Amino acid sequence: MTNEPAPSRLAQSAYNSPYSRAGAPTPHHNSDPYSALRSTALADLEAMGYDPKTMVEHGVVWAEHQDPYGHVMHSQYMHWAGSCIFRIGEGYDEWLSKQEQVRYPDSIIGAYFQGFIEPTRNNGTVALYSLKQQAIVAEVKGSTTYVDVKTGRPVDIRTLGGNWPKVYEAYLQKSENAKALKEKWDSERRSSKANSASKI
Predict the structure, then answer these.
(1) Cys-Cys with 156: which of 5, 98, 119, 131 at CB 3.0–4.6 Å?
(2) Distances (CA, A) of 59 to 11, 52, 147, 160
(3) Residues in CB range of 33: below 8 A, 6 or more apart
(4) How far is CA 80 from CA 96, 124, 144, 164, in A?
């Protein structure tokens, strides 16, 4: 066991310095405390099947990413996940030379599709719809887990007091309605395509 002092916060946040990047004239005076951790993380992620071409690393910024309790905010997780999802889209160029990207000026509608709900989790999809292209140009699928703050474990919201059982029932109905509408939409599109093909 070594008696080396723990790296300072300044050293631990050196990822925000341009001197920690390739191309800097000299190495940063703080060594990279994440070097060994990064090596292990990248090996694990690749072994699990994650695509190395889409990986993006983000340093946590003290003043921008935390809530008043010192926790990284949920909205920041979505921002980080989004930057990785965009990397996937950038990779489409390998196969799609004429991919339509959203370009200025355009207007985008964000819409939520209620997926299935479980007693401990709600699942859904946010779609971004381009008015110019008249098409969905991006989707983010995710879930919210209901957690008991005292135990840190998932909780069945049907067992909670107040109106939580009504919340579950309402979202169950929303889920069924959304599924029925989507099935109807898909069926109409299949019929339309089949009719167009038979006229050719």
Answers:
(1) 119
(2) 12, 18, 27, 38
(3) 7, 11, 12, 14
(4) 25, 19, 17, 31
